[in-house]
UniProtKB/TrEMBL annotation:
It comes from the Bacteria. It comes from Streptoalloteichus tenebrarius (strain ATCC 17920 / DSM 40477 / JCM 4838 / CBS 697.72 / NBRC 16177 / NCIMB 11028 / NRRL B-12390 / A12253. 1 / ISP 5477) (Streptomyces tenebrarius). It holds the Pfam family Hydrolase_3. Transmembrane segments: none annotated. NCBIfam families: HAD-SF-IIB. This is Hydrolase. The lineage of its organism: Bacteria, Bacillati, Actinomycetota, Actinomycetes, Pseudonocardiales.
């Protein structure tokens, strides 16, 4: 990154990074984001969450910036509260991945994030307290048939930690989708081929003439690794996943200690 001037864009994950463990944005973090924006930086939140799950966060930050949601599949403008871009998984690719994974990993459960709601097959364990649009149907075939669009495919196993399940999912589905996880127990998320937080962020920046070395990024989980590897300056949170800490030399404090805000205060002093 050019050390002579502040970054032109701040890209930050939400859960475990910008947000405190209770899901709130601290007053110090709000002030740091506002100062960065006043200093000329664009603010982009890069998250696994769908737009509906960031409404209360948007309010806390004054509807500032843009959100790259669902691991890059949906771009959402906070100020106007509208979706401005989508990159869905093709139905045939989702069907092939579900069939392959079900055959190789008996007992796994499936769900789809459509961008509007979650549709889950019976046997899919996770529920999200912040999301009331969670529909349960009998089979994965019903899930795919009812999906308005497939922003990402969820694969869940009660018998696997997220890290080994991720490796199994990549081995089974890599040619049809991009597999990652954001820390959910036994939960893997699959986007369309070529779709990730970083690829959508890169396209967003290219459209605005912003180079990677003009971007500072923050993250804590494996689904943040691509963004942290792409940005000119990348910070792993002190509370980050071991893989993120290993790959990212710079450190920010923990999410509960306003780690992002402390870095931004230095950059935009």
């Amino acid at each position: 990154m050019n050390t002579q001037r502040p970054p032109r864009l701040v890209a930050t994950d939400l859960d475990g990074t910008l947000l405190r463990s209770d899901g709130t944005v601290s007053a110090r973090t709000r002030a740091a984001l506002s100062a960065a924006a006043a200093g000329g930086a664009e603010i982009v939140f890069v998250t696994a969450r769908p737009p509906r799950a960031i409404a209360h966060i948007a309010e806390q930050v004054g509807h500032l910036g843009t959100a790259i949601c669902v691991n890059g599949a949906v771009t959402y403008e906070l100020a106007r509260e509208r979706i401005v871009g989508t990159r869905p998984v093709a139905l045939d690719a989702a069907t092939r991945m579900a069939e392959t994974l079900a055959a190789r990993l008996p007992g796994v459960g499936f769900a789809v994030e459509t961008g509007i709601r979650v549709i889950a097959a019976t046997g899919f364990g996770p529920r999200w307290d912040h999301d009331h649009r969670h529909v349960v149907v009998p089979t994965v075939s019903d899930v795919l048939r009812l999906a308005e669009s497939i922003a990402k495919l969820f694969v869940w196993s009660a018998d696997h930690h997220a890290d080994p399940l991720l490796e199994l999912a990549r081995a089974a589905a890599a040619e049809h989708g991009e597999c990652t996880h954001s820390g959910g127990s036994g939960l893997v998320e699959i986007s369309a081929v070529g779709v990730s937080k970083a690829s959508t962020l890169a396209a967003y920046c290219a459209a605005r003439g912003i180079a990677p070395d003009e971007v500072v990024a923050f993250g804590d989980m494996p689904n943040d690794l691509d963004v942290l590897g792409w940005a000119g300056a990348a910070y792993a949170m002190a509370n980050a996943h071991p893989a993120v800490l290993a790959a990212t030399p710079r450190r920010a404090g923990t999410n509960d200690d306003d780690g992002v805000a402390r870095v931004l205060e230095r950059l935009f002093a």
